[in-house]
Amino acid sequence: MAEGEERLKSGVIGFDEKIEGGFVNNSVVLIRGKAGTGKTAFCSSFLYAGALNKEPGLYVTTEQEEDDIRMDIKKMFGWDLKSLEKKGLLKFVSVMPLAAGKEEKTDRLIKAYISEFTNKIAEDVKSMKAQRVVIDSVSILQMFIQNRYTSRVTLMSLTKLLKKLGVTTMFTEGIAEQGVILGEEALTEFVVDAVIGLEFVPVAERYNRTMLISKMRRTDHSTFIHPFAITKKGLELLKIKTPTIATMRKT
């Protein structure tokens, strides 16, 4: 870690020690995984930890209504989000693309949505003085835009805007069940500062969730696959029992 470099706590129990104490301030982190792997849990843990530390956070959803996200988080963790929202420490907003009519020009619709999307984020960040932002997800943006070049330029512009606003951001990106990244291929990983992959791993007759940090700029990070669980305490890394030389000899 560079001397004097500020780090933000992730909110994930046992995770910060794997990334030199937290996320680099003003960086953009990609959380990637299939449905149900814990993307929303990871992102909400990040915002909740910030809110408890008086660091306002903005949750932007592109695929669900605000109340659906609130209910999902409440069901997982039981956190009191309303009091944090009243204090201006949390805000949930939904900015979903609209379906184009038969007579509507697609290019015009795309430009209008991108403009509305970026303007809304900038306005809310400034009004609440947000320090943390979640955009869940960027997959729908890429699918809506369709054009590969335009998708990448949009993501680059969005990343540049977020850095200019001085916030630390999490993007989520979906992966289909067959392992294909949703949207215009794997564009996002090239414009972000960090990539964390979430996965289901079969263990005995059940599945365990795991995470892998495949990229994190300016950070000496863990390269191990870490199992984790969604508990009432929050998202928590599970300790791995590493076999010693003595136990290996016995086996």
The N- and C-terminal alpha carbons lie at a distance of 39 Å
What is the tally of helical segments?
7
CATH topology: Rossmann fold
Which structural category fits the helices and strands?
alpha/beta
| Sequence of strands across the biggest β-sheet | 5-4-6-7-3-8-9-10-11
CATH C-level class = Alpha Beta
Give a short account of the largest sheet. 9 strands, mixed
Could you explain how this protein is built, in words?
It is a single chain. The strands form 2 sheets. This protein has a 9-stranded mixed β-sheet, with helices on both faces. The chain has a two-stranded antiparallel sheet with strand order 1-2. It has one domain: Rossmann fold. With 251 residues, it is an alpha/beta fold. The termini are far apart. 34% of the residues lie in helices and 26% in strands. It has helices at residues 39-52, 66-77, 81-86, 106-128, 139-145, 148-165, 245-250, and strands at residues 7-8, 23-24, 28-34, 57-61, 90-94, 132-136, 168-175, 194-203, 206-216, 226-231, 234-237. The chain is globular. A hairpin with a 2-residue loop joins strand 8 (194-203) and strand 9. The protein contains 7 helices and 11 strands.
SSE layout and pairings?
Elements: E1 7-8, E2 23-24, E3 28-34, H1 39-52, E4 57-61, H2 66-77, H3 81-86, E5 90-94, H4 106-128, E6 132-136, H5 139-145, H6 148-165, E7 168-175, E8 194-203, E9 206-216, E10 226-231, E11 234-237, H7 245-250
Parallel strand pairs: 3-7, 3-8, 4-5, 4-6, 6-7
Antiparallel strand pairs: 1-2, 8-9, 9-10, 10-11
Helix pairs in contact: 4-6
